[in-house]
Design goal:
globular, four-stranded parallel sheet, alpha/beta, 22% strand, two-stranded antiparallel ribbon
């Protein structure tokens, strides 16, 4: 018998919960500074997509990359991989976060 297992993509919340439990995970917000200032995941770092090539942290870091909708973070992950970051995951957009009160810094 052949069973097909389709891996459901984790929700933004699941990624956040997973990342919060692992001290090695760095949340990277690639939105512009004003967007970051209005709300972001507590403890995240901000490096806008427009300046992503200037990111200077340990290349082996586990990066959970997000933006507003997931589009900029997708582009950022591609660039980061090209410049030598080999552990990057696009976790999507902060607009999809359901449990806002837990993780948002306003």
């Amino acid at each position: 018998e052949n069973f097909m297992f389709f891996k459901r993509r984790k929700s933004f919340d699941e990624y956040v919960q997973e990342g919060k439990k692992d001290s090695k995970v760095i949340f990277l917000d690639v939105r512009e500074e004003d967007e970051y200032a209005s709300e972001h995941i507590i403890g995240s770092i901000n490096c806008p997509l427009s300046r992503i090539e200037t990111l200077d942290i340990d290349r082996s870091s586990e990066l959970f990359v997000y933006c507003r909708s997931g589009a900029r973070s997708y582009k950022a992950c591609k660039i980061l991989e090209k410049i030598g970051y080999n552990n990057v995951i696009n976790i999507g957009g902060i607009m999809d976060l359901k449990s806002k009160y837990l993780y948002i810094n306003k």
